[in-house]
Every structure is written in C-alpha cells, then in structure tokens.
Amino acid sequence: MSGKIKSSYPGVRYRRHKTRMFNRQKDKIFFIRYNKEGRTVEECVGWMSEDNSAFEASKIRAQIVSNIRIGRSPQSLKEMREMEEQRRADEALADEQKQRENITFGVAAEMYLDWSRTNKKSYEQDKSRHEIHLKERFDHLPMKNISAFPHLETLKRDIQKKKLADATLFQVLQEIRAIYRKAIEWGLYSGPIPTENTKNLFPKINNKRVGFLSPDQANELLGRTKEKSLTLYCQCVLALHAGLRFGEIAALEWSDINVSAGTIHIRNPKSGRDRYAYINDAISEMFDELIEARTKKGREFAGLIFPDTRGRLQKHVSRSFYECIKDMGLNEGITDQKQRISFHSLRHTFGSQLAAAGFPIQLIQELMGHQSLEMTSRYSHFAPGLRQDAAKALGELFTGKQDGQEPGAKVISLENKQ
Question: Which helix (H) or strand (E) holds 165?
C-alpha cells in the first residue's frame, strides 16, 4: 500500500491498495484524525469495498469532534464501535426476551415431546395426552397467557364431563407442568407456571389396584395363557412368581438371567434402582420350556427374551391375556377399575400372597422394588392373623400368662432364651 493521501474532507485520509480493485479503481482504506486532550488521534474507518467512503468517514469524525467539545460519548471511533456492539447485543437480548415471553405452548410442547421420545418410557402416553387433550386447546396460545383460571379449570371441567378417570386428569395436568418446567430449564420461557400455587386443581387420586387372584384362579389363568402363547405364559409366570412389572419383563435380556445364582437382574426399573428377582421352581421350569422351544426353532439366546414380532421392545401386553381374563369371567360385573383384573394384578397377587404367608413387609418391599414402605403397606391387610397373634402375645406378656403359665410366673428374657 502507498502512503496516506489527504481527501477533500478535513481530517480524512486514505491509502490505495496495491492490487485489489473495487468499482474499476484500486480499493481505498480511510482514516480519520482529530485532537483529543492535546494530542492527535488517528483511527481506521475501513475499506471502500466494505461500504465506507471519505464522506462517511467525515461524518464519523464530525460526530466525535462534537462529542469531545461538549463532553459526551462516544469520543473515539473505538468507543463508538463498542457502544454500537453493546446496542446490538441489548437489542438481540430484548428480541430474545420478547420471543421467550411470546413463545406458544405448541412450540414448547413439541420440544418437550422430542425430549420425551429419547428420555422417557412414557413417550407414547405423553404424545397421546397432548394430541387428545392439549393440542387444539392450548398450542396456539402464548404460554404466558395460559392461567389456572379459566384455562386449566375449564380443561378440568371438560375432562370430568367426559367421565374420564381422575388419574387421567392428574396426568394431563402433570404433563402441562412438565412442559412449563422444561421450557424454563431450557431458557425458552421465564414466566409463571399455571399449575403451581393453585388449590384443588389436581384431583386426589387413589390408583392403587386392589384386584388379585386366588391360587386356583392364578393356576387356571396360567393354563389358559399357555394354550394361547408360550411367550405370554412365560411373562405371566414371571409376574406371578417374581412380582415383575410388564415393562421389566419386556426389557429382560438373556444376559440378565443367572441360572447358577438363581437370580434375574432387573435393570432401570420404575423405581430407578436396579434390583434382583429370584428364580423359584416354577420360573426354572418355565425357562426350561422356553429354552427347549427356542432351541428347536434354532433361535439365538442373545438380546431381548421377549421381543415383539419385529424384534423390538414389546410395549403392550398381548390381547390374548385379556381374552383369557374374559373367558374366565374375572371382570364380569366389576366397574371399579382398581378392582378389575389386569396383567398388573399378577404382580399384586405376588405381593398379597407373600403378605398372607407372613413374610415381613420390608422383605416384600425389597422383592417388589417399591421406592417406599408406604407403597408396600397396601399388602399388610392380607395378614390380619399376624396382627391378632401379635396383640394376643402382647396381652399375655403384660398379664404374665404365656404358654399356660399363671400370672406372676417368671418370664424368661429373649436374650437368655437365645
């Protein structure tokens, strides 16, 4: 580049590029000069090819000189550029804030469902609830405009009018809350959550199934399912004899079965903590039959034990199970969903039979993989005799009448007895 050349504008100079052409002439880079605090300051404005000119440079210089004279910012090209950069950042932040304030429920719901697809086992249910109850009603509304009243209360009223279960209403409201919380977590929304700080919005529900099978009914059901499908029979055996949930059974892989140790490794269960179920004679015989059948068909013993017809994770219990339930008349005349027999009733039967046999509630909790003892306490009523025996023993202890002893007889301590 050659030396600086004075332009026709005071305090504006330029240099020509040695080779680069722009608009049929050599490109120019412009500089401005001005005095500040008794010294000369020179700053580069930029190239003509970057949409700069001597005239534009002179306007920038005039503004800086004027600002220096009256003591106002900016007082340099550097400061001017910094202020412009800050202005653009503030403008972008304001636009982003405006977008956050105006984000629609539909946009947030779509992102939530994308996340649910890869992170939740209940994605299909999440998607279905959105399609049926939320999409048409809320997707077009800004999230900030949705409130407990009238929006959620109207939703609640409409669901109740359809005579849907309280559990359905609870899950729909729960999904709305989850969408809002994720939108806040992802920086998409910064307003209030309409499901919070509300009274009586969420219904109080008791979705604990209490329907269970007697031993005779369980054995008959196993026989009927075996006639329908060996796979269904095996799944029923695992639910009835190991207390496994259907989702846990569907996710079982051959590597989870340790025949020598007599254990079944339950990975990623509903409680979030891996646990072990135990192989009894019925389960051992069931696996023998299953292995023999697979061997005859030349199938490998790797991956899922009970895949669906496409080799993927089975998501639903076979319809043949409910055909067996119908043929046995187990749900005939029963309208209460909690009392009706389902596949989960086999797991419930497992817990109730253990309680009836007198096993400690803490052991039942461990075997069933419950998060809290409260969840297992539903089975305690299956062992009323144990409570009666305990009350009787305590009464005898205080009266001193034990095993035929008369009151006042010497009581031997448990420590000495041991």
Answer: none
Strand order in the sheet with 39-47: 5-6, 12-22, 25-36, 39-47
Amino acid at 17: H
* pTM attached to this predicted model: 0.53
What single string gives the DSSP state of each residue in 326-346?
HHHTTTTT---TTTS--THHH
Query: CB neighbours (10 Å) of residue 235?
Result: 26
Residue 92, both tokens: 């972008």
Q: In Å, how far are 46, 201, 285 from 346, measured between CA atoms?
A: 79, 33, 18
Q: Are 298 and 292 a contacting pair, CB within 8 Å?
A: no
Chain segment 194-244, per-residue pLDDT in tens: 999 888 899 886 656 567 888 899 999 999 999 999 999 999 999 999 999
Nearest to residue 9, comparing CAs of 39, 26, 34, 38? 34
Q: Reduced to 3 states, what is the DSSP secondary structure of residue 204? A: coil
1-5, 220-224, 245-249, 413-417: least confident range: 413-417
